[in-house]
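User: tokens in, sequence out, please.
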């Protein structure tokens, strides 16, 4: 570019002095041809003082030789870069500099626009430090921090996942995070998706925090339990953003399941214990009354069990109880419920089963036990009582009637099934 006309010179002069940006014109030898008031103020000099300086007196990043090379290479296409400059008081500021080469009266000059970006740089550095701090904190948090967004148009995305998601999900970070909701959401088991979505929609409608537990398929193929806690916020554009944490609670869930199983399971035989069986009996009786469906109850007792303990010891007796429980389990339907009532007494709940069908089941069970040969003991038999729920009788009445039938089977010689209708029992 070459400035020739007086009008052009006047225009450049006016722009040069009126602009808020710092402007400086350099000669190719690095000396300052002219600096505007904004640039002089930026560096703490007067414009007159600036005229006695060279660019390397001001630049705190590049050496004089580097600057000389840069000045020689400047052309009309210009250059744009960041550097640091030294103020008159010795303090250093960050600047953004753009330059272009031009000729005036046959001399090559370099026109530079200089902007003080010290505050911006300080903000960027603070943000960088904060980001590093957050990353450091996030790396120490068990689980994963995340943000989940539903845009105004309904588009779902995860703008942020901490690196903890890699261990949590068993997939590389780039395979989980991104603009789309998959594959993160697709890792949730299908039977849990509805519950997660319902919680999210409720949170969006009420601004309530989300707290939901669900299962995911880990990258290694295993099933993991995840606890999600997040807080919603409305965005200016009408979208919703949730910020929260995901925790792997698989071990806790397994422990809870073990505790629950222990609470409802007989420790010796592994089948339902009396307390849980009583609860199931009440529940099945209510169901049978509500839907007018039959329900039968079998109670059986091992014959002469005390003599087994006396003769062979309690360990042998325990083995018998476990074997009998297993034999009976193998002969029942998935819908039937088998539990230990106490000692050598057991009960079987048969939903959707009338008295005649229940009698046949009991007979099948009796034969299965009687035909099994126990090591050292030979054969063992059991006596059975069978009843069907009558109207709205209580569980206590039903249990008493089946106990009466079992007692009758014992009196009539053992190793038999007794099943009397309620009308014949006293």
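Assistant: Sequence out:
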């Amino acid at each position: 570019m070459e400035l020739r006309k007086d009008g052009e010179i006047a225009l450049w002069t006016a722009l040069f002095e009126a602009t808020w940006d710092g402007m400086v014109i350099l000669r190719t030898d690095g000396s300052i041809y002219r600096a505007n008031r904004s640039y002089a103020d930026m560096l703490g000099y007067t414009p007159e003082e600036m005229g006695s300086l060279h660019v390397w007196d001001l630049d705190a990043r590049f050496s004089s030789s580097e600057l000389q090379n840069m000045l020689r290479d400047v052309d009309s296409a210009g250059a744009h870069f960041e550097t640091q400059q030294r103020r008159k008081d010795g303090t250093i500021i960050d600047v953004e500099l753009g330059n272009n080469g031009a000729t005036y009266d046959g001399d090559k000059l370099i026109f530079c626009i200089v902007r003080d970006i010290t505050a911006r740089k300080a903000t960027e550095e603070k943000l960088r430090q904060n980001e590093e701090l957050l990353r450091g904190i996030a790396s120490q948090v068990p689980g994963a921090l995340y943000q989940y967004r539903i845009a105004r148009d309904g588009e779902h995305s995860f703008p942020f996942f901490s690196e903890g998601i890699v261990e949590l999900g068993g997939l590389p970070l780039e395979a989980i995070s991104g603009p789309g909701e998959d594959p993160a959401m697709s890792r949730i088991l299908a039977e849990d998706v509805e519950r997660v979505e319902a919680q999210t929609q409720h949170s969006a409608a009420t601004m309530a925090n989300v707290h939901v537990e669900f299962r995911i398929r880990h990258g290694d193929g295993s099933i993991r339990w995840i606890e999600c806690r997040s807080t919603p916020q409305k965005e200016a554009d009408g979208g919703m953003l949730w910020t929260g944490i995901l925790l792997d609670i698989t071990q806790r869930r397994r422990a809870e399941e073990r505790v629950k199983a222990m609470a409802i399971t007989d420790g010796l035989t592994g089948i339902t214990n009396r307390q849980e069986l009583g609860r199931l009996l009440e529940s099945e009786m209510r169901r049978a009354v509500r839907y007018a469906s039959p329900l039968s109850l079998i109670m059986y007792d091992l014959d002469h069990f005390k003599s087994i303990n006396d003769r062979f010891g309690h360990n042998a007796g325990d083995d018998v109880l476990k074997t009998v429980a297993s034999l009976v389990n193998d002969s029942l339907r998935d819908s039937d419920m088998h539990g230990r009532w106490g000692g050598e007494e057991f009960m079987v709940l048969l939903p959707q089963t009338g008295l005649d069908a229940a009698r046949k089941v009991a007979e099948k069970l009796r034969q299965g036990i009687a035909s099994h040969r126990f090591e050292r003991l030979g054969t063992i038999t059991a006596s059975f009582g069978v009843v069907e729920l009558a109207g709205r009788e209580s569980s206590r009445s039903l249990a008493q009637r089946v106990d009466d039938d079992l007692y009758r089977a014992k009196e009539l010689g053992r190793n038999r099934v007794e099943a009397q209708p309620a009308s014949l029992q006293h």
